[in-house]
Amino acid sequence: MGVEGISKEQNLGNLVRSSHSFGAEFFFTIRPDIKMKDVRMSDTSEAHEHMPFYNYDSLSDLKLPRGCDLVGVEFLEDSIELPSFKHPTRAAYILGPEMGNLSDEVLDMCRFTIKIPMKFCVNVGVAGALVMNDRMISLGRFAPRPVKAGGPTEELKQEKFGLRRFSRKAKTS
Ligand SMILES: C[S@@+](CC[C@H](N)C(=O)[O-])C[C@H]1O[C@@H](n2cnc3c(N)ncnc32)[C@H](O)[C@@H]1O
Questions:
Q1: Is 110 in the pocket of ligand 1 (CB under 6 A)?
Q2: Do 138 and 132 meet the contact criterion of CB atoms below 8 Å apart?
């Protein structure tokens, strides 16, 4: 997870904490305008101790792992609506500043730009948590929702990795 141009320590602390809790592999900021000490005060989960954290002065310094798609999260007319978006397996999400949007420079770098369908923009920390929650629901493996209201009635089917390899008949010559 990452943010461009964030200026409120509490928002960053909030997003870092949610990222830690959702199991993000790393966190980054581009051109932040904050005091890192105050971020730590609003992140009581001490995410900094558990997750790599990178501060970049410029977008050109951002290095993503190989094969990792940058996904912009921005409330733009032509952004893909989150409920219809298939998350890439390897993805880094970038959110914008409290005032304004993600810069054109960042949007140009994004493979996809997504939005949460709403009447208007919400707090950056809330938007980040909604995206991570959607990723967890759509890519995570959970027991299916039942037809009637309530908890699951079926167990999650176990994936059978390597089934083909193990069930292949021995060659006879
Ligand atoms: C508070 S918003 C920025 C202010 C907003 N551009 C405005 O002037 O109305 C901060 C960031 O949260 C994210 N965000 C908030 N609501 C969003 C939504 N519904 N869909 C996608 N991103 C959203 C975007 O990354 C945005 O840049």
A1: no
A2: no
Q: Which domain holds residue 67?
A: 2-139
Q: Tell whether 37 is covered by a domain.
A: yes
Q: For ligand 1, what atom is nearest to the CA of residue 123?
A: 1
Is the Cβ atom of 127 under 6 angstroms away from ligand 1? yes
Domain count of the chain? 1
Tell how strand 112-115 and strand 27-30 pair up: unpaired
CA within 13 Å, CB half, 48: 14
Length of the chain equals 173
CB of 43 shorter than 6 A to ligand 1: no
pLDDT tens by residue, 30-79 = 998 888 777 777 677 787 788 999 999 999 999 999 999 999 999 999 99
The residues, ordered by sequence, that sit 6+ positions from 45 with a Cβ below 8 Å of its Cβ are 17, 20, 21
CATH number at residue 119: 3.40.1280.10
pTM: 0.89
Q: Is residue 72 part of a domain?
A: yes
Q: Is the dihedral of CA 154, 159, 164, 166 positive or negative?
A: negative
